[in-house]
Specification:
By secondary structure, this protein is mainly alpha-helical. Helices cover 73% and strands 0% of the residues. The longest helix is centred in the N-terminal third of the chain and has 22 residues. It starts with 12 loop residues before the first helix and ends with a helix.
Length: 180
């Protein structure tokens, strides 16, 4: 198509990409609410998002990549905004920050669970926790903590967050103080 003032977006390339990736990500979440992950195709995502396949592949390698990039962004934003630190915060403060953050995604995590995609979330936990704390706690303790914390977060979310973030944070802090 020949470009002219009527068909060229006034947005910069970066803004267009952000707009496109946002629509693709939102489309995938909408599709996951009503269809199994295995039945969702890139074509269905593009149709739902109103973008072409070339736009999809310009920004993502696969359906899983859409979710992984979303998780990376959400985690980056949380870590920078909250200044969460296992070293500086008490255990209860740390976990309260984490569980308050996770309540924002109380609808999304069960979708990942039902789709069999919790490994993406587990990988994010491991990446952040192990990279941050392996030098402090050692490899085995860091793996133990990452896996245990992840499983408690997942169970809490899948059960519909029956405890407040403060209550579940207190329970987890008590478990750790009793363990170590």
């Amino acid at each position: 198509m020949r470009q002219n003032a009527k068909n060229v977006s006034p947005l910069s390339n970066e803004a267009r990409n952000a707009y496109t990736t946002g629509h693709i990500t939102e489309a995938l979440w909408e599709l996951l609410k009503r269809s199994p992950f295995s039945e969702i195709t890139v074509s269905k995502i593009c149709s739902q998002a109103g973008v072409g396949r070339a736009s999809f592949y310009r920004n993502f390698e696969s359906k899983e990549d859409v979710l992984q990039k979303w998780l990376d962004q959400v985690t980056d934003d949380f870590v920078s905004r909250s200044a969460i630190s296992f070293e500086k915060d008490s255990s209860k403060e740390y976990f309260t920050k984490l569980f308050n953050h996770m309540t924002q995604y109380r609808e999304i995590c069960p979708i990942l669970y039902k789709a069999g995609l919790t490994q993406l979330l587990k990988d994010e936990f491991d990446k952040r926790f192990l990279l941050s704390y392996q030098n402090i706690y050692g490899e085995f303790k860091s793996c133990f903590l990452s896996g245990g914390i992840f499983n408690i977060v997942l169970l809490w979310l899948v059960k519909g967050c029956p405890e407040t973030p403060e209550e579940i944070a207190g329970k987890l802090a008590n478990i750790l103080s009793d363990t170590f």
